[in-house]
Design a protein that fits this description.
Elements lengths: L2 H15 L3 E8 L2 E12 L2 E6 L3 H8 L2 E6 L6 E14 L6 H7 L2 H8 L4 E14 L8 E4 L2 H8 L8 H8 L6 H12 L6 H29 L20 H26 L1 H15 L14 H8 L2 H12 L4 H6 L1 H17 L1 H6 L5 H30 L14 H11 L10 H25 L3
Antiparallel strand pairs: 1-2, 1-4, 2-3, 3-6, 4-5, 5-6, 6-7
Length: 452
């Protein structure tokens, strides 16, 4: 293939991969319509999801379409022509995952509007403009079968295996491990970097393993479907097969347990006690025969595992002493950890009910769930004040009140389930958890170094 054409196709592929939406233009019966739609590209074909509106009706009458892919600044963009083919309802078509992998926001759209269908656009001509380096004429490409073969071979979308395995661990949630481990280590009068790093590694491996195993059993039970946002989605989007996914989770979990045994050998049997209880709670969060999540006990299990147990275990590794005070001091972080989980379960009440399960959010109902969220978030701040008054925490930890605007934003969202932001309440709460935790840890460090 001509080198210039090949370079143009590489630029086109990069544009396809770095955008989530395109402007779709259709016409029928003398009427032209344009609208923004989410898309995904695979093998040179473009997949879009449309509600049954003007563009949908126009395509049924006239499948010839025009599209523009750009990011608001006219420096690198694609204009194109193509033929659109109706594939069918989004809940029945596996091609939906091509779009989901590129634009997860489509899940929210597809759940909110009934009758969304998947269409495949076979481009016939691409006009590729790239002014990021030097000014040069727009490149025009006729999309022949040979061009499509290039997209299907040399330019085929390949997600590196390590990215898929990493995504399966749900790394965005790792702050719920980081904060209690830091809390336990910084409250210790003696600090060892070696023991801290080994504790942190073990806790992180266990958390990653629990996340993967949880998704595996949710998927097996039919809880995780294309409609669910809370999982890593590597299974529902077809990025991993169930067997390899479960083996990955068990490997991570096993390595975490092995790290715990090493710590037990060097620091004493209480490490085993803390680790064993936490590991059992995490593993059987979704795993049979307990499946704590499906009996409304998931919140308690997560609070204990990612709150008092992790903080107390870390403290013991540092000092070889058990501090029951740490169980109380871990309450603020533990409450916000439950709030993350509750944000996810509150949003997915309908999906869980379809699968025949009820989390605590389902038992509480909408109003009760909103009040419960308020109690969790408000309780984190109230507990911090109490511990400062008791002299258990330095006054500097009141820096956590700098995060109140984020907490208030989230509480408002929790009481307005119809808002788009409610869909991302778990992510918003994870952000609050991270900022609150950083402020708390910063306050502990200042308490060591600075006298108020």
């Amino acid at each position: 293939m001509d080198p210039t054409l090949m370079e143009t196709l590489r630029i086109a592929k990069k544009i396809f991969q770095t955008h989530k939406t395109l402007t779709l233009v259709t016409s029928a019966d003398g009427r032209v319509w344009a609208g923004k739609v989410y898309y995904g590209e695979e093998d040179g074909y473009i997949y879009v999801a449309l509600e049954q509106g003007r563009n949908y009706r126009n395509i049924l009458a006239n499948p010839r379409v025009f599209f523009v892919i750009e990011h608001g600044v006219p420096d690198r963009f694609i204009q194109g022509e193509g033929i659109a083919e109706r594939l069918g309802p989004i809940e029945e078509r596996p091609e939906r995952h091509i779009i989901f992998r590129n634009a997860l926001e489509l899940v929210v759209f597809a759940k909110s509007f009934p009758g969304v269908e998947v269409f495949r656009i076979r481009p016939t001509r691409l006009y590729v403009s790239d002014f990021t380096g030097v000014w040069k004429p727009r490149a025009e490409v006729e999309v022949t079968d040979e061009v499509l073969r290039v997209f299907q071979t040399e330019l085929k979308t390949r997600v590196p295996a390590w990215k898929v395995y990493w995504k399966a661990t749900r790394p965005f949630a790792f702050t719920v491990t980081v904060m209690p481990v830091l809390l336990g280590a910084l409250m210790a009068p003696r600090f060892s970097w070696a023991w801290f790093l080994l504790t942190f590694l073990g806790a992180l491996l266990l958390h990653a393993g629990v996340n993967v195993i949880s998704d595996a059993f949710d998927y097996r039970r039919g809880v995780d479907t294309w409609r669910v946002l809370g999982s890593s989605r590597v299974l529902v989007d077809g990025l991993m097969v169930p067997g390899a996914h479960l083996r990955w989770g068990l490997l991570l979990f096993g390595l975490g347990c092995l790290t715990g045994l090493v710590l037990t050998y060097f620091r004493g049997w209480p490490v085993l006690a803390f680790g064993l209880v936490g590991a059992v709670l995490g593993f059987f969060y979704t795993a049979p025969p307990l499946g704590l999540k499906y009996w409304g006990l998931g919140d308690l299990a997560v609070f204990l595992a990612f709150g008092p147990l992790m903080a107390m275990g870390t403290y013991y590794v540092q000092t070889q002493e058990i501090s029951w005070r740490l169980a109380w001091l871990a309450v603020p972080i533990g409450l916000l950890t439950i709030a993350i989980l509750h944000g996810n379960n509150f949003r997915d009440v309908g999906e869980d009910a379809r699968a025949g399960y009820r989390t605590l959010a389902g038992l509480l109902g909408p109003r009760g769930s909103s009040l419960y969220y308020l109690g969790l978030v408000g309780g984190a701040y109230a507990a911090t004040v109490v511990f400062v008054v008791l002299g258990w925490l330095p006054i500097w930890t009141l820096l956590v009140f700098g995060t109140v605007p984020y907490a208030w934003r989230n509480i408002r969202v929790a009481f307005q389930p119809a808002r788009v932001a409610f869909t991302f309440l778990d992510l918003l709460t994870a952000q609050l958890h991270m900022l609150f935790g950083l402020a708390l840890i910063g306050g502990l460090l200042l308490g060591r170094w600075v006298r108020p």
